[in-house]
Amino acid sequence: MLVNFPQNPERLNDFELQHVPAVWLMGPETVRVLVGEKQHSMDPEHYIEWVELYDGKERLARVELTPERRPEIVIDTGGRVGYFTARAYCSQHGLWQSGWA
């Protein structure tokens, strides 16, 4: 599956602001992932279907979403430390990943 990355993660365009997942460390064992700094639509025909969180190459979590739910997840990392990345799948615009290609 083709993965979309922001062209410049430090300066997202309007389209990327709706699709690129943002990752925040909320505490020593908690990570928050929000898809779209600019709220992504969550309509039945256009929404974020799922969000995944990775620690390196290992997937820590995958959460399926519905149009009624906000495209945001909070995950307990079990004390893992490192560089976390997230992926999100838009029903119309495919797979997006945080960070660099």
Please give a structural write-up:
This protein is mostly beta strands and 101 residues long. Helix content is 6%, strand content 46%. The chain contains one helix and eight strands. The chain has one helix at residues 14-19; strands at 3-4, 21-27, 30-35, 48-55, 58-64, 72-76, 84-90, 94-97. Strand 7 (84-90) and strand 8 form a beta hairpin. The longest helix has 6 residues, at 14-19. The mean pLDDT is 90.
Summarize the structure.
This protein has 101 residues and is mostly beta strands.
Classify the secondary structure makeup into a structural class: mainly beta
Helical coverage, percent range: under 10%
Biggest beta-sheet profile = 5 strands, mixed
* Secondary-structure element series: EHEEEEEEE
The poorly predicted ranges are none
Task: Supply the number of helical segments.
Answer: 1
CATH homologous superfamily name? SOR catalytic domain
